[in-house]
Specification:
The complex is a heterotrimer of chains A (408), B (113) and C (315). With 408 residues, chain A is an alpha/beta fold. Chain A has helices at residues 2-11, 26-39, 61-73, 89-101, 116-121, 128-148, 162-178, 264-278, 282-294, 300-319, 321-327, 345-357, 370-377, 382-391; strands at residues 17-21, 52-56, 79-83, 194-195, 198-199, 202-205, 211-219, 230-237, 240-248. Chain A has 14 helices and 9 strands. The longest helix of chain A has 21 residues, at 128-148. Chain B has a domain at 53-113. The chains are: A alpha/beta (408), B mainly alpha (113), C mainly alpha (315).
């Protein structure tokens, strides 16, 4: 037993971390990422990839729900850190290692099955009801996993969501058949096209007028290289967004984030770091993070090194033909056209590089509104959409948006 | 063939061993049962849908070439014996196929986003 | 020269198969370690990280999702490493392949082609949008790399007048194939990165889709898929040494040492070059593959065919 514990402690000495930064914690995130880079702890891509869920600051109610969902998706051994301040960061991370190494299996205590019941409940239409569904599921999930978690064999049946699913499907059943329920053929279904408490995709005409499956998905609020808290409600046909609506979660919860007065060069490097991560260029993203973190130091020689590093990564990105080839022509924002070049992703990347070089202070302006960005996202492929979002500086406070309910 | 079969058996055993080792070493033997990851939100629909692969036209073109490759493997072996005639025939055939590629390219089917 | 003697005939079936499996794991470790060193920006300690990650994944709990296609998902996961190791059956180790037939190159090609199904199934299985997108991205990418890869394999076959690895090795006694087939060599290595969905061809597991086909994998499932990727990369590097760099030929040192040195060099070069690039998105790569790579590899094949008929490869 002792041996296996020591083995696990050794194996988990470099855990993978998923960072969730609540609004107004930018500088704290930088400090944390610097420490993680220094320790060689990789950043996780998804909950499946996560050992440590690190929550920075105080998330609003909707983000907190999302964090609960994420936490329920992390496999054991796992550890959650709520970091209000970064002063005891070192200590907290050491604690994390200890906790991971000493973790004991918790079969169904904290959320093996948090959301199952709520899933059947959340209808595919209005957005706010999804939050209800989550709220609901959080409570229900607890007691469900209490007695269900252990002996649930597989997904088959899922009858505990039945009482929700049933009346739900009674309302929805008509629409489903009307909209081409034939698409659901071949799957075992409950009434009205629900399988395991969730409806199947609907159909809608594509750009050629063919009736094809359209899938409603959420991109955000928590993804690597994605502005935390941003929620993209998308209709997907294949990997193409046929509809897009952007909003901030906890948008009504104002006063939380006064526009932070951050070092422009560091902010540009941070923007580049997440963009490069999304663009699938991890080594350049690492260099950008490294330069960003170095610029915070006080020593003259360290500062000089960081500046050189920033210049190197900015030049490398600016000159990269592969990156230019892969992002050119995507995401023309009308409000930016004419200011400098076309206003596509590549132009914005190059302007971020200029700021990162420290040469010119012309920071790319935030787009007029989230709706403008959302309009550009429509019709793009998922990867392109991610690049577009990563290339714009979305400011929570400035770019206000329609209330969530307006989009259905 | 026996060698390949034994390699297959061996690597199959290795995979089985890893699963066995995992069930012995893993902190929880039972797999955790979760909702699919959708960046913190709960999925509203099953992701398993009829995915619109918009590059389907290229798959047809691909098949034409892929069939052709079946001829090209044996052709490579006998080329030295067959001489110039074989080269002319094969590359003539490929030229015909490439005309198809040019047509598809001009139609814009190689770009779908 | 014991021309077509296989490793199985020379050392017995089981020892040879064990050796191949061991070498496959070693190659996988090599690729993972070099990749880790490049990713973390140096630091020799990174060579232990693949082992550490493997143990970590073995001790981690596995996951299932809502209404997964369990059977297909699990078979896809297991198929990735199995195919990778099976492709090693025709890769020479110490000058001998485990198995030798008149169609060794076709076997290698077939193992890689079956990966299409395996990776797509890994993406399809968990009923999750990111994984599904990753699976389809792999298919789109396959449409781009598959034909250039096959043409470069055939070019080698033309040069050697045989599809048998042993014959290809002996055909390079005078001159390594890389000299007369540089394009095929580069395309072969790039395709290796593409079918191992790694580096610039990592779109199927891209960070923009949260890890794509691997986004719902934890524990031993993730370990198997990751191991399959790196073994495939390592196997292809070893195959590239055999097909283009003369295998174990070289002065002073014994053959296996040369082969090892060349393989390490190819792996390091491949990983170093691959990590200098961002992900090349499949939707743009496909067009370039059809309009540039396929014509170029065909011209390469034509050049080699003409050289063959003019007696250039006289052995």
């Amino acid at each position: 037993m002792d041996l296996s514990r020591r083995l696990r402690a050794w194996a988990l000495a470099r855990p993978r971390v998923l960072i969730v930064d609540a609004p107004g914690t930018v500088e704290r995130r930088w400090a944390v990422e610097a420490e993680l880079d220094r320790r060689g702890w990789p950043l996780a891509m998804s909950p499946a990839d996560t050992d440590v869920l690190l929550v920075l600051g105080t998330p609003g109610p909707q983000l907190a729900l999302a964090i609960d969902v994420l936490w329920s998706q992390v496999a054991q051994p796992r550890h959650r850190v709520d970091l209000r301040a970064t002063t005891d960061l070192h200590h907290r991370l050491e604690e994390t290692l200890h906790a991971l190494g000493a973790a004991t299996p918790k079969e169904h205590v904290d959320g093996a099955l948090p959301a199952r019941a709520g899933a059947g409940h959340s209808p595919e239409g209005t957005d706010d009801s999804t939050h209800e569904g989550m709220e609901h599921s959080r409570h229900e999930g607890m007691d469900h996993s209490g007695h269900e978690g252990m002996d649930r064999a597989g997904m088959a049946g899922m009858d505990h969501s039945g009482h929700e699913g049933m009346d739900h499907s009674r309302q929805e059943g008509m629409d489903h058949t009307a909209m081409g329920g034939g698409g659901h053929a071949g799957h075992h279904m409950h009434h009205g096209g629900e399988v395991a408490g969730l409806p199947m995709a609907e159909t809608a005409p594509d750009r050629d007028g063919l009736a094809l499956d359209v899938l409603r998905v959420s991109i955000g609020p928590v993804l690597p290289g994605w502005p935390t808290g941003l929620l993209l409600r998308a209709d997907l046909q294949g990997d193409v967004l046929t509809g897009a609506g952007l909003s901030w979660v906890d948008a009504t919860d104002d006063g939380s984030s006064p526009p932070a007065d951050v070092h422009p060069q560091r902010a540009a490097l941070d923007q580049l770091a997440s963009l490069l991560l999304v663009a699938g260029w991890p080594t350049a993203a690492r260099d950008a993070r490294c330069a960003r973190d170095g610029l915070a130091s006080t020593g003259q020689s360290e500062l000089a090194t960081a500046r050189r590093r920033a210049a190197r990564v900015a030049r490398r990105v600016r000159r990269s033909r592969a990156l230019a080839w892969t992002v050119r022509g995507a995401g023309h924002l009308p409000s930016e056209r004419g200011s400098a070049g076309d206003g596509d992703v590549l132009d914005r990347v190059r302007r971020w590089c200029d700021v990162a070089l420290g040469a010119d202070g012309h920071v790319p302006a935030s787009p007029a509104s989230l709706d403008e960005v959302a309009a550009v996202l429509e019709g793009t492929e998922l990867g392109t959409a991610r690049l577009i979002v990563a290339s714009v500086a979305l400011d929570r406070s400035a770019a206000n948006t329609e209330p969530e309910e307006a989009r259905a | 063939m026996l060698a390949v079969l034994s390699l297959f058996a061996l690597v199959g055993a290795l995979v089985a061993t890893l699963y066995g080792a995992s069930s012995l070493m893993a902190i929880a033997r039972r797999a955790t049962d979760v909702m699919p990851f959708e960046s913190g939100m709960l999925p509203q629909q099953h992701a398993a849908s009829r995915y619109h692969a918009r590059w389907y036209a290229i798959t047809i073109l691909f098949l034409a070439f892929d069939m052709e490759m079946i001829f090209m493997y044996p052709w490579a072996v006998v080329l030295a014996d067959m001489g110039v005639g074989a080269v002319v025939e094969m590359f003539g055939f490929l030229a015909v196929l490439l005309v198809g590629v040019v047509y598809v390219w001009r139609e814009g089917a190689l770009r779908w986003t | 020269m014991p021309e077509a003697e296989t490793a199985a005939a020379a050392w017995g079936v089981l020892p040879a198969a064990l050796l191949v499996t061991g070498v496959a794991l070693g190659l996988g470790w090599l690729v993972a370690a070099v990749d880790r060193v490049v990713l973390s920006g140096g630091g020799g300690a990174a060579v232990l990280e693949p082992v550490r990650s493997s143990v970590r994944l073995l001790t981690e709990q596995r996951r299932t999702t809502l209404a997964p296609d369990r059977l297909l998902w699990r078979s896809g996961i297991a198929a990735v490493p199995v195919l990778a190791v099976l492709s090693m059956a025709v890769v020479p180790i110490g000058g001998r392949t485990l198995w030798s037939s008149s169609a060794d190159l076709v076997w290698f090609n077939a193992m890689e082609a079956l990966l299409w199904a395996a990776v797509w199934l890994v993406g399809w299985g968990p009923n999750a949008i990111h994984a599904l997108t990753g699976g389809y991205r792999f298919l789109a990418q396959g449409l781009a790399y598959e034909l250039p890869l096959m043409f470069s394999l055939i070019t080698v076959g033309v040069g050697a007048g045989s599809l048998r690895t042993a014959d290809i090795l002996s055909a390079q006694a005078g001159l390594w194939f890389v000299v007369s087939m540089p394009v095929a060599f580069v395309v072969f290595l790039a395709s290796a990165a593409a079918f191992a969905f790694w580096g610039p061809f990592g779109a199927p597991t891209g960070a923009d889709i949260a890890g794509g086909v691997t986004s719902e994998l934890s524990g031993v499932d993730r370990l198997l898929v990751e191991a399959g990727r790196v073994i495939f990369l390592g196997a292809t590097a070893a195959m590239a040494v055999a097909l283009f760099l003369g295998g174990g030929s070289g002065p002073w040192l014994p053959g296996p040492v040369w082969q090892l040195l060349k393989t390490v060099a190819v792996v390091v070069a491949l990983v170093w070059a691959g990590r200098r690039l961002p992900v090349l998105r499949p939707d743009r790569v496909v067009e370039v593959a059809w309009t540039v790579l396929i014509p170029v590899t065909l011209v390469q094949a034509l050049v080699v065919a003409v050289l063959l008929l003019s007696g250039f490869y006289a052995v």
